[in-house]
Amino acid sequence: MRFLRGFNSLLLVSLSIVLASPVRAQATGIAATPPMGWNSWNHFHNKVDDATIRAQAEAMVSSGMRDAGYTYVNIDDTWEGERDGTGVIHSNSKFPDMKALADFVHSKGLKIGIYSSPGPKTCAKYEGSYGHELQDAQTYAAWGIDYLKYDLCGLREQMKAAPSPEAAHKIMVDAYIKMRDALRSTGRPIVYSLCQYGNDAVWEWGANVGGNLWRTTGDINDHYASMEAIGFGQAGLARFAGPGHWNDPDMLEVGNGGLTETESRSHFSLWAILAAPLIAGNDLRDMRPEIHDILANKEVIAVDQDTLGRQGRRVWKNGDLEVWSKQMKDGSRAVILLNRGSAEQEINVNWEDLGYPTHFNADVRDLWQHKYLGKFTGKFSAPVVSHGVVMVAVRP
Ligand code: GLA
C-alpha cells in the first residue's frame, strides 16, 4: 500500500512535470539548432517570383552557403493568389507551380519555406489563412513545404475590436494554436515561425503555441541604427530560447548595402551569440567575396549552431562598450567585444564575467581572423574599431 502510494505520488510528480513543461516543437528534432537559410523579403520585397527562388537556391549551393549550413529557401509575402470554389489557396501568376518549385529546391538538397497570416489578409494585403487554416496546412504539406512564417498582420483588425487586451491576446494565441494543430495534423515536419513583432512578451508563450521561433521585434531595416537597436535590445531574453524554440531578432541584412563590412561583422557576430536563426536576406547571386566570407564564416556559424542551444548574454557594459558571452557545449565560451561608439577603443573582458575563475589559463582564438591568439590568464583585451566587433573563443 505504502509502495503504491509512493508510486502514485511519483506518477503525479512526473505528470505535473510533463504538464508544466511547455509543449515544444512541431515534431521532435525540428529546429534543434537555430534554423539557417534565406528569405526573400529583405532584398526583394514584393518583387519575388519562381525564377528568383530557383536562382537563389542555385546560388546557395554554388556559393558554398549550403555547405556552410544554410538550408531553408523561404518565400515571404506576395506569392498568394486566389482561393478556388472549395476554398483551396492557389499561388499567383508569379509562382505558376508551387509543387514543382518545391521539388526543384529539394533537388538541390535544400528545404523550402512559405509565408502566411492568421488574419484574412497578409501585411502586403494578400490572402491570409483566416478560416482556412487546416486547408492551407494541407496544401503546404502537399506542395512539400518545410517551413511556415505566420505573420500576425491582418488579425490585428480583429484584435482591435476585442473588448479587452486579454480578449485580444486570446484571439492571437488561439490563432497561433490553430495553425500549430493544423500543421501537426499533416504529419509533415514543418518549422513554425511566429511573427507578431514581439508583442505580449511572445517569448513567454511562443513555445507553448508550438513556435520553433518567434520574432522578438519589429522589422529590421538595412541601417546600422536598426540592426543596433534590435540586436542589443535582445538583452534579457536568453532564458526563453533553447533547442526547438528560438528567439528571432529578424533576418539578416548582411550584403544588402546599408551596413559597412565592419557593421556586417558585428551584426553576424551578435546574431550568432544570440543563437538567432541565421536567415540571409541578400541576393545570393551577387555577393562580393567579403560578404560571402561573413555569411559563410564557419567558425562564427558554429557558435550559433552549438548543440547546447544556449543563447548568449550581455555580461558587461560600460557606455558604448559591451561584452556578450555564449556558453558552448564543450564548456568554452564564445565572446564578442563590441564598440557602439564613434572612435576606436580598447575593450577588456575578465574571465570572472564569463563564469571562469580569475586564475584560469585559457586559449583564445579569433573567429574572424581565424587565428590562435595565445594563452591568457584572468582576462583578454583588444582594440575594437567604431561599430566593430572582436569575436573570440575562450577555452580554459
Ligand atoms: C511584416 C513582417 C516582415 C515581412 C512583411 C511582408 O512586416 O514583419 O518580415 O514578412 O510583413 O509583408
Structural class: alpha/beta
How far apart are the first and last residues' alpha carbons, in Å?
53 Å
Extended strand count? 18
Largest sheet: 8 strands, parallel
Strand order of the largest sheet: 9-8-7-6-5-2-1-10
The residue-averaged pLDDT reads 94
Task: Please state the CA-atom Rg, rounded to the nearest Å.
Answer: 22 Å
Uncertain segments are 1-26
The amount of helix comes to: 25-40%
User: Could you spell the SSE succession in H and E letters?
Assistant: HEHHHEEEHEHEHHEEHEHEHHEEEEEEEE
**Small molecules (ligands, ions, cofactors) in the structure:** alpha-D-galactopyranose
DSSP helix count? 12
Kindly estimate the percentage of residues that lie in beta strands according to DSSP: 15-25%
- Shape call: globular
